[in-house]
Amino acid sequence: MPQYALIDCNNFYASCERAFRPGLKGRPIVVLSNNDGCIIARSNEAKAVGAPMGGPYFKCRGLLERNGVEVFSSNYALYGDMSARVMRVLARFCPGLEIYSIDEAFADLTGVPGGADAFGRRLKATVEAWTGIPVSVGIGPTKTLAKLANHFAKKQPRCRGVFDFTTSPDPDRVLRWAEIGDVWGIGPRHAKRLRKMGVANALEFRELKRDWVKKKMTITGLHTLLELRGWPCHDFATGPVGKKTIVSSRSFGRPVTELDDLLEATAQYMTRAAEKLRRQNSVASHVMVFLHTNKFKLGHPQYSNAESVPLPVATGHTPTLIKAAQSGMKRIYREDYAFKKCGVMLSGLEPVNGRWLSLLDLPPDDRPDDRPLMQAVDTLNKRWGRDTVAFAASGIKRNWKMKREMRSPRYTTVWEELLTVRAE
DNA sequence: TCTGGGGTCCTAGGACCC
DNA sequence: TCTGGGGTCCTAGGACCC
Known about the structure:
Elements: E1 4-9, H1 12-19, E2 29-32, E3 39-42, H2 44-48, H3 57-66, E4 70-73, H4 76-93, E5 97-101, E6 104-108, H5 116-131, E7 135-140, H6 143-155, E8 162-164, H7 171-177, H8 188-196, H9 202-206, H10 210-228, E9 246-256, H11 259-279, E10 282-293, E11 304-315, H12 318-332, E12 339-347, E13 350-351, H13 370-384
Parallel strand pairs: 2-4, 7-8
Antiparallel strand pairs: 1-6, 1-7, 2-3, 5-6, 9-12, 10-11, 10-12, 10-13
Helix pairs in contact: 4-5, 11-12
The protein binds a DNA duplex through residues 32-38, 40, 54-59, 61, 74, 100-104, 184-190, 217-220, 243-251, 254, 294-296, 308, 341, 343, 403.
C-alpha cells in the first residue's frame, strides 16, 4: 500500500517574518496581500484575537491595533527564498518529493524503514532546526487522506504536529471529526450544498453513492470520494511540471485613467510573464490582456474587458509579446474610467525546441537569432538583479506602482538588507 | 405539430486550490 | 482613501463541418 506524506509549513508567511525576529515569538502577526489590501497569513495568536483570513486591512485595522498585532506587507523575495530552503531540506531526506505550493510538499514514503510516523517526526524536527520554519506532517494512503491527516495534526495538540492514518487505531473517528468543508477538493459551494443535505463531515461524505457524487460534483468530486476510501486517484509528480498558462497582473496603488500608464503597466507585467515563460523553456502562441475598474466602488461607472491576441509564430521574445499585449490594451481601453487593475496572460504554451517555424513568413521581430538576446537579458537580470536590463516600453513614470508600506527587509536575498547580529 | 444527426474545436464560466 | 495573485480542471454551449 502506498504511503504519502503532506508536509505543510505552519502559517508560512507569518513564520517567515518571525524566523528573523525572534522577539515576535508568541506575538500575534498578520501579513497583508499586495497593496496592503487584505490579510493573507496569520500567526496562531492573530487567529486567536479574531483577525479574519482575507479580511480587508482597512476594515480590521482597529481590531489589529487594539490587540497589538504586528502587521507586515508581503515580502515575496523572503518567502520564496525560505520556501526553497525548506524544500531543499525535504528533498534531502525524501527521494520522491512533489512540491505542491510555496509552503507544501507531498512525499512518497512507501516502504520507508522504521515506520512513516517516526520518519515524519524526524523530518519535522529537522526542518524546524535547519530553517526556523515550523511544519506539520500528515500521512495517509492517498493524497486526500494525507491532507486530512495534516489538518488533524495541526489542530490536535496531542498529535504534536504529526498524524499517520495508516497506523491510527480509529481512522473513522478522524473522518467524523473533519468538517466537510475541510476536505481537500470540497470548496464552499459544494460544502454548503452537502451540509444542507445533512452531510456534515468527511465520514458522511465518504458513505455517499458514487453515481450521485459523480453526477452532482463531476469527476473531480468522485476522485475526492474515492481517495477518502483509500483509492489513489491523484498522480504523484516528481520534477517540475511546466505551466499551461502564465499570468502576471497587479492592482494599482491608486486609480489609473490614462492609456499611457496602462500601456506602461502592460509592458512591465509582460516582461515578468515572459521571464517566467523562458524559465520553463516555453514559447507562447496567445497573449491575453485584461483590465477592470474597482468592483467594490458601488455607484461608480464600471468597465472590464479582455482581449486575446493570437501570435503568428509562438515566441518568447519580450518586445514581440509586449507589442501584442499593448495592441490589445489599446483596443479595450476606454476613457473616463478609473481603472484598478490590469494584467496579461500567456497561453498556448509549447516547448521552445519543438516549436513549428516557417522560414518563409517569419515576422521581422522574431528571427531565430532573437533567442541569444533574450538569454543575455535573463542572465544579466539574474546576476545583477531584476530590471538591470529593462524594456523602454515599461516606462519610467510608474504612476501605477503598488503600495507596500510595511515590508520587512529582504533578509536573505539583498545584501543591503541582511540581518545584523550584534554579539555583546 | 414540428425543426436531421453526428463529430470536433473553442470559449466562457464555474468550482476548486494555495 | 483603503478589498491579492496565480493556477488547474471540468462542463455546457456555440460555431462549424460533413
